[in-house]
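Summarise what follows for lecture notes:
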Amino acid sequence: MISKEEYASYFEQYIALVSNGKSIIENLKSSQQLFDEVLRNLSEDKHNYVYAEGKWTLKELMQHIIDTERIFGYRALCFARNDSTDLPGFDQDIFVANDNANKRDYFEMLDEMKTLRKSTIQLYESFEDIALLRIGTASGNKISVRALGYLFSGHQIHHLNIVKERYL
């Protein structure tokens, strides 16, 4: 079981969504399957839909999840390899403002997320148990490789819940 000392309190909202007794790999697979099932069959009019002014389109939301998974994957790799470099944070709003998501093909983005998740799974399958317990610093906060593993799925589920509540 993951300890709350392994991550900043801010991440509790995501980790709580996957505190289900499943392994990191099981959560990565099931959250991606659910994500794809919900988003793959949406009508085209939803692809650039915004539920309120100043909020992200569905494509921007997907690109945010993709970008975040890449950044967190890099963090997990660094910490698992025992790199003690303090890693910087990132401003999600600057990323979205510059991501070109709304001009991208919706289904290519879904395929990209599926491929990226497969890569994340392979990365985590390569880690030994000791590597999962290693802790590094990113955005000024300590976080373990294990916590990052659960964070991928929790972050994806968090945003999928928002999609279900506000976009559909």
In short: The two ends are 34 Å apart (CA to CA). The first helix runs from residue 12 to 15. The mean pLDDT is 96. DSSP finds seven helices and two strands in the chain.
